[in-house]
Each structure stands twice: as structure tokens, then as C-alpha cells.
Specification:
This protein has three domains: 128 residues, 3-Layer(aba) Sandwich (Rossmann fold), CATH 3.40.50.12160; 240 residues, Alpha-Beta Horseshoe (pyruvate-formate lyase- activating enzyme), CATH 3.80.30; 91 residues, OB fold (Dihydrolipoamide Acetyltransferase, E2P) (Beta Barrel), CATH 2.40.50. It is 32% helix and 18% strand. The protein has 15 helices and 22 strands. The strands form five sheets. An eight-stranded mixed sheet has the order 21-19-20-17-16-15-18-22. A six-stranded parallel sheet has the order 2-1-3-4-5-6, with helices on both faces. Helix 8 packs parallel to helix 9 and helix 12 packs parallel to helix 13. It starts with 9 loop residues before the first strand and ends in a 33-residue tail after the last helix.
Amino acid sequence: MTSTPTTGRGTYQVRTFGCQMNVHDSERLAGLLETAGYTPAPESADVERGDVDVIVFNTCAVRENADRRLYGHLGMLRPAKRRNPNLQIAVGGCLAQKDRSTITDRAPWVDVVFGTHNIHSLPVLLDRARHERDAQVEILESLEVFPSTLPTKRESAAAGWVSISVGCNNTCTFCIVPSLRGKEKDRRPGDILAEVQHLVDTGAIEVTLLGQNVNSYGVEFGDRGAFAKLLRACGEIDGLERIRFTSPHPAMFTDDVIDAMAETPTVMPQLHMPLQSGSDRILKAMRRSYRSAKFLRILDSVRERIPHAAITTDIIVGFPGETEDDFQRTLDVVEASRFSSAFTFQYSPRPGTPAADMEDQVPKEVVQDRYERLTALQDRISAEENQRLIGTEVEVIIGDGEGTRDQQTHRLSGRSRDNRLVHVGIPAGLSEADMPRPGDAVTARVTAAAPFYLVADSGVTPADAGHASAPTGASSGEPAGEFRIRRTRSGDAWQARLTAADDSCSTGGCGTGPAPAGPVGLGMPSVRAPQQGREQGVK
């Protein structure tokens, strides 16, 4: 469902921390606010000048410093609140679900606190706080309205998120998410397919199915094969070019899902499969109901059916009781798995989880040493796997804000079918009218590779020397002289958004169009971010 604004109520910002589920929830929060009459604050908006009327923090509770990060941001807003008493500050998400009224005790200038089960209440709570001049704290213990039935303000014209379930039935000892998101609740297949169809009808060509454990989908209505059936059904939707999903659980990953992936052309050759540890002893202590041998068998089965699949993972280093031998077993599994990239996290105890009270907490300096050794190994493997792709053809959907240095390097950036980040060299002399738009597809050959990205400069001829140069550290090959652009419905949708924003600015309503372009941290397996992460995984 898309948002339909009513009357003007002021401007808003939504600041998102955490995983892809939070990013998806933030799109719902933006949709709710715009339906209630608020407009997105322009990128140049300054809270100190009073340019923003409502600031919403959508929080994460997974990381050790989640509390410190939130209260640091809230502290920086206190002077702005003093100068502008009409500024409203709202805090939602997992940390709000966990801390509740503690937030307003520590930061009494916060106006609204809401939880993971009642994001739909935000506009009403803002109105109530404004009317009563008092903080409103509302935390529900169970889901009242499924988030995907709420209005949505999508960041991307080309790609959309679709929740197929919320909550989790697992009891991993390191994870606080089940206690904050609740037990798994599955949507009916017809509702999911209707939402996917709506996204396609509005210009999307890529959809990512979301769930705490997507492959356990169907458990609530007793169909163990429901997820594989859902993948196949999505593959029948005309106009949908790319289907992804995250995150599955190894213990529940079955052959029918692998078959559906291999036999559905629009399911991308990419899989995020959380390992967490290569030590069976540590997996048992984590209450992860699989062992390393099963994990490796799954990867073998996937690669047998989908030879070019890019597989990513999550790994926690320094779980309580982890010995050097346990850690070596993790290194061995990583070497054998040949992940294209990995989210590597240093374990941090989270109050309320069984692992927080376990004995034999690993000293910080030991965890740091193991973390550095693991990331060095994965960086080497990522570089080797990427270098194997030099000379191969890739189709890249151009993103909006994917490449932070694109202007300097004369490249555009986006994601290949296997979700690798690719920087594509643009031929010199290409007119502005002929340039690929965000959402358009570009086909080129890989000419260079680094651990965290690929470079496809095959369209850059020797005469264009200096027009696009391989980034430092990239391993280069010879340009293949190939560059093709395919206009897409998503590119058309992006252009329509841009035109609408320009028209709005010309009539004095600048800021009411699409959200400002720029990088969006999705918390998903990307090419660069994983090796930088130090937080504890949630899968």
C-alpha cells in the first residue's frame, strides 16, 4: 500500500538503526506520517534551525552500544528541543520495546515511545503527546496490525521489501530479537503475492522477501513446503525480474527450497546462510540446531544446483567459552565455504539473553585478535572469488547512491544478479539523455576486482584513458569493449519521481517529493560493510 497524504502537518525525519527489518519498518513509518499529512524534510534540513518538526528513531537492540548510541543522539537533540518546544521526538523499534519508560526517564524531552508491535500508532501518539503536553509510552506485547498492511514510502523505485512473517520461534542464546519481536506470525500467501504484484505495478523489478527465518514460513498454518511454493509463485509474476530472500536458518533449509531456487529463473543466484560458528560445541551452546557438517552439505547442494551462486554469511567471534580450537574450526569452515562476503561480529552480551550470564566470557583482547584473523581470511577469500569473475559478463541494476565515489571515478554503481556491488565505467561522450538511470540495467564485462566490489570498465576504450580508472587495490584485466543499456520500468518510475519532485519545488512545495537520494544502510549482506561490522548477529 502506498501513502496518500492529507493536509500539511509539518516535516519529518526517520533515522534507522539496525537490520533490514528495521529499514522495512521505517518505510512503513514514513508512509504513516505522510498519510497523516507530514512531509519529508529536505536533505538540507537543519534541526537546530527548526526545519524539522518530527524526528523518529527506529532503533535496534542487538548491538552492545545500542543504548549508548540512541542516548547520544537524543542528548544532541536536547538543545534543539529547548529552542523549539514544538519539535517532537519519537523512539520506536526493538530498543523501545525493551527499555519502555526507561527512555523517557533518561531523556524526558522525548515525546513518544512505541514498540515493535504498534508502529501503526505513531501518528495518534504524536497527536496525543502534542495535545496533552506529556510523553506517550505505548508498548504492546503482541502484534496488533501486520506491518505490511500499513501505508509505505519506499526509498527505491526499483526494489522493494515484502515481509512474509514477523517474529521468531527459535531460542538462540545470544539473540534478544524473539523476546522483542515475538513468536513467528506468517502472512497468508495471497496477501504476500498481492503486495508483490502491487510493487511490480508501481515500477519495482526486484523484491526481497523478509522474515526472521524466511524458510520456516508456513509453520503457523501447517505447511512445511510453503516457502518453496511461495518462491515459485513469485516467479510467475509478470514483470518481476529479481527475487531475493533473507534470512534462512540452516536447520530448516530443505531440498525443496533449493529446487525452487534452481528452477525459478527470477530467483537470484545468491544465498545468505548464517553460520555463526564452525565449532559444533559452540553451536550447541548457542542453541543453533545444526552442526558444521550439515551446514557444509547445504552449501554443496546449493552449488550443485546453482553453480555460480554467491553465498554470504554471519559469524560471531568470541562467544562465551570459545577456545582457540573452537575458533580454528570456524576458520576451517570459512575456508571450505568460500563465502563471497561475511558479516563478522564480535560477541557482545545483551541483558536478557542466556549467553549474557554464561561463564567463561572471552577477554576483549582475545576477541579482537580472533576477529582480525577471521576478517583477514575472509578478505582474502572474497578477493579470490571476485578475481575469478574478471572477464565474465554481468547485468547490473543501477542503484541510487550505491557508489560514494562515482562522480570522481566517472562510474555508476549497482548490484549484479548475485548481489555483488559493481562499479560500471561510463563511456566518454555518452550524452546525458542516454545515461542509465537508477533502476535501469547495464550489461558489461568485469575488468577488475577487489575484495568488496567488482569493476566493469569494458565500455571504456583506450581512447578514454583517464576517464575511468580502477580503484587502488583492484586486480585488473583487459577491457572487453562491451557496454549495453536496457531501459526498465523502474528507471521510468525513478524518472517520474524526479519529475514530481521538480514540479513540487517549482510550485513552492519542495520537500514533498521522494526521499533524498543517498546511500541506505540496509543491514543486508553487502560487499563492503560486513568486514567492518562488530555487532552480534541476530540469525
